UniProtKB/TrEMBL annotation:
Organism from which the protein derives: Algoriphagus aquimarinus
Name of the molecule in the record: DUF4974 domain-containing protein
GO molecular function terms listed in the Swiss-Prot or TrEMBL record: sigma factor antagonist activity
FecR protein domain span: 94-181
Domain Protein FecR C-terminal stretches: 227-295
Superkingdom of the source species: Bacteria
Keyword Transmembrane in record: yes
Keyword terms of this UniProt record: Membrane, Transmembrane, Transmembrane helix
Transmembrane parts of this sequence: 47-66
Classification via Pfam families: FecR, FecR_C
Length: 297
């Protein structure tokens, strides 16, 4: 009975009136709304593409600038990497060195002298530039001549031993010990002379006048063996040689005869011993103070 009463009660309650919807009208409303929003949506996409295009353009421009800068730096590095590298060997007064050259040749470099050359002797020749004095023992290479450039004179060798002395401002002295050398002017293809062993060429670099003569080996390369050799040397020449040999500065006071000459050899001697020996034969007084020497007549 209770169940029947509940059913009857529910039936008698008021129910909400159903809402009737016009399907065609609702479809038209949705279509109209979509058409009204479409321009707004299209405008937003257009703005997006504009910004995207601008960003791509800036990014491309920046990449181009950076690429150009890197290329320039690389080009500069490449240019620097192919630049020739020169080696410079210099001796101060009182210093002598043995220089091993890239081709196996050896240069004995005297004091107050310098030698300059390409690091690996690149090219078709083995060229060294000499200031001062050096003795060369040249490795043989017929396809690549060895050239010593001193002032405006070239000494050309294939495999030989020779000495080049440019200490005298008015004279270049080229002395051949063994082998054969050709001597040229740097600004001309004409050969000045071809030397045989035991011969030397004395050249005036200004006038280009030259004299070929024989020489004493000890007189030319004694310095390489530790010998200080004087052969009819004037006081001026002796002073210059002692300055280079011992790294000192010599000042001469008093009157000196033009006939002042000395011929002697000192081997592995100190400056004091040399000056003391000269003092007895040439009658002068001397004083050594640090690196300064005063000779008084």
């Amino acid at each position: 009975m209770e169940l029947i009463e509940n059913i009857q009660k529910t039936w008698r309650e008021d129910t909400a009136e159903p809402i009737l919807v016009n399907v065609d009208a609702k479809a038209n409303e949705i279509w109209t709304s979509a058409m009204m929003e479409q321009p707004k949506q299209a405008w937003r996409w257009d703005l997006f593409f504009r910004y995207a295009a601008a960003i791509l353009f800036l990014a491309g421009s920046l990449f181009w600038v950076l690429s150009t800068a890197d290329f320039g730096e690389s080009e500069q590095i490449d240019t620097l990497s192919i630049a020739p590298t020169f080696i410079l060997r210099e001796n101060i007064p009182g210093q002598k060195t043995k220089v091993f050259l890239p081709d196996g040749s050896i240069a004995y470099l005297n004091s107050s002298s310098s030698l300059k050359y390409l690091e690996n002797f690149e090219g078709l020749e083995r060229r060294v530039v000499l200031i001062g004095e050096a003795y060369f023992e040249v490795s043989k290479d017929e396809k690549k001549p060895f050239i010593v450039e001193s002032k405006n004179i070239e000494t050309v060798a294939l495999g030989t031993a020779f000495n080049v002395n440019t200490f005298n401002l008015n004279e270049i002295r080229i002395s051949l010990i063994e082998g054969k050398v050709g001597i040229n002017h740097t600004e001309s293809t004409d050969k000045l002379a071809t030397l045989n062993p035991g011969k030397e060429l004395l050249i005036n670099p200004t006038t280009q006048q030259f004299l070929e003569q024989s020489f004493e080996i000890e007189d030319v390369i004694g310095w390489k063996l530790g010998k200080l050799v004087f052969n009819h040397a004037s006081l001026e020449e002796v002073s210059r040689r002692l300055e280079r040999w011992y790294g000192v500065k010599i000042t001469v006071k008093g009157s000196v005869s033009a006939a002042w000459k000395i011929s002697t050899v000192y081997e592995n001697q100190s400056l004091k011993n040399v000056l003391t020996d000269l003092q007895y034969s040439k009658k002068f007084a001397y004083e050594i103070k640090d690196s300064n020497v005063t000779i008084t007549f």
